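Render NCKX4 protein in 3D.
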Amino acid sequence: TDGKMDKIKWILSWPLIFVLFCTIPNCSKPRWERYFMVTFILSTLWIALFSYFMVWMVTVIGYTLGIPDVIMGITFLAAGTSVPDCMASLIVARQGLGDMAVSNTIGSNVFDILVGLGVPWGLQTMAIDCGSTVKINSKGLVYSVALLLGSV
């Protein structure tokens, strides 16, 4: 049964893996070592594209099921992006690399805040509509703070 599931998973993921293989240089090979920044930028662009589609799909599913965007974002999107970071931190902590686990946790949040929020807001205020302000929809702020305090 496991062999069949692995084959199905491979068949379903093969097109995506092929596209990523064709568009992102593999820096682990000596031929592509110099292109590490290209790999980083293309990987970030692919993550942005995947994130856009993930948010879009969760929004459509929430709308279809009558679940507010705030709840869908806090539960599915936040958990879906935090659980892999948590698992990676647990794995390296078990290997005795506690400093790497902590830096992974802090680094991913810093990257999310500085790049995930900073780049779009910077583009909006500096390039698209120079001197404008960014309005923040804070309808879900109370839920977010309550969940954050509850988890702490």
